[in-house]
User: Which sequence fits this backbone?
């Protein structure tokens, strides 16, 4: 019935907003009624309920599972803390799992791997929500460079992790074995299975001789699953996570500082970094990401503030050093102190020379009395002369020669030089 449907939609909106009373003729017990209605129609009440409805894996009823259940149940604050941290990412992870028709137990993997901390890093250099080691990350085309580490990207790493888990399931034919392979590697599980077959022993997960960490891995997931399935039984109150997206992607076509992006969205720097943890530098460089993630309720604010923004979107310039160039000469060239240059790039005092190193130049640290008030990279065109370039950019030939440490006025079309200039 259309009227009933509209009634339910309005009540659901109120329910998700956390209202205790609703106008337009609704009674105070209507929210209780809509919960009952949703339950009767098998509709998920929230993301946790949606996860429970998607559990498909057979339970692992072993002694280790019981031990880990007892352990986690005796640490309710830790469970609650991880659950709260997961709230930004949980809907997206479950949505992608559902889209692929996979068991939602997979959304529990980051509970064990990273405690749902996208910046977590292990002793063997695994990183991100899903704890990809560098080699496996390369296999799934996750970028790892000076600018960013996509193992920490909550969206891209989730796609890669689920791709990997689907592959493991097809190989192993069993989710418990697939999870074990995710933890210790396919070859380790295959060797353990082959050994048991040779000895005429069972080849199920519990029967394999595998590393201790892996032997405890699936029981840990089973323990968390048991708690999530019935948190009240264990005296654990899970944080509210709506069955709706927390974040969405926003396209960007210019370099932008992380701090500036957070201010435009009117969120804390901590919140911005939690959604965009893959960036290694304070500037998000154009070629390395065409999108940023923002809480859905801030997207209009971000766009409106961006339209009216009058300042610089970035306070950094990017410079690639020349062969055996000194940090002293670079700081002099850009009109900043060597201390600021080193601090901005985490360069130790012992390092005196640099060759082909990418450096960030903090333009807000340029000395006021410096003849260089800005710096741009310019690609030399056919017919250009140093004098013409200097005139076009409101600087002097001497400044141009000094900025690039040129020995003469010979230049080559297609090459690039740094052009210092003062604004008119």
Assistant:
């Amino acid at each position: 019935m259309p009227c009933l449907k509209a009634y339910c939609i309005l009540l659901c909106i109120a329910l998700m907003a956390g209202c205790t009373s609703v106008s337009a003729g609704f009674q105070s017990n209507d929210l209780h009624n809509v919960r009952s209605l949703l339950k009767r129609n098998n509709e998920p009440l929230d993301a946790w309920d949606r996860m429970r409805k998607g559990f498909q894996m057979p339970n692992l009823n072993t002694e280790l599972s019981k031990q880990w259940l007892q352990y986690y149940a005796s640490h309710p604050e830790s469970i609650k803390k991880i659950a709260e941290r997961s709230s930004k990412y949980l809907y997206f992870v479950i949505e992608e799992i559902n889209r692929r028709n996979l068991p939602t137990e997979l959304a529990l993997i980051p509970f064990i791997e990273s405690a749902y901390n996208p910046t977590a890093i292990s002793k063997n250099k695994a990183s991100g929500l899903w704890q990809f080691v560098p080699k496996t990350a390369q296999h799934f085309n996750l970028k790892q460079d000076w600018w960013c580490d996509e193992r920490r990207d909550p969206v891209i790493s989730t796609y890669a992790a689920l791709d990997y888990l689907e592959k493991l399931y097809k190989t192993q034919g069993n989710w418990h074995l697939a999870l074990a392979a995710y933890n210790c590697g396919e070859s380790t599980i295959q060797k353990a299975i082959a050994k048991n077959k040779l000895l005429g022993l069972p080849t199920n997960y519990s029967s394999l001789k595998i590393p201790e960490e892996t032997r405890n891995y699936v029981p840990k997931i089973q323990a968390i699953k048991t708690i999530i399935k019935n948190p009240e039984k264990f005296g654990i109150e899970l944080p509210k996570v709506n069955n709706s997206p927390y974040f969405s992607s926003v396209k960007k076509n210019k370099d932008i500082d992380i701090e500036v992006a957070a201010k435009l969205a009117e969120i804390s720097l901590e919140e911005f970094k939690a959604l965009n943890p893959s960036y290694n530098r304070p500037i998000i460089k154009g070629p390395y990401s065409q999108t940023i993630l923002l809480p859905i309720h801030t997207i209009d604010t971000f766009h409106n503030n961006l339209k009216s923004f009058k300042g610089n979107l970035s306070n950094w310039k990017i410079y690639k050093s020349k062969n055996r160039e000194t940090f002293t000469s670079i700081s002099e060239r850009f009109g900043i102190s060597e201390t600021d240059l080193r601090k901005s790039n985490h360069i130790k005092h012992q390092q005196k020379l640099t060759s082909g190193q990418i450096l960030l130049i903090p333009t807000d640290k340029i000395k006021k009395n410096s003849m260089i008030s800005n710096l741009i990279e310019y690609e030399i065109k056919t017919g250009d002369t140093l004098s013409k370039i200097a005139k076009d950019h409101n600087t002097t030939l001497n400044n141009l020669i000094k900025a690039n440490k040129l020995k003469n006025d010979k230049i080559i079309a297609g090459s690039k030089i740094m052009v210092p200039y003062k604004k008119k």
Remarks:
- The chain has four domains: 2-43, 50-234, 247-308, 317-420.
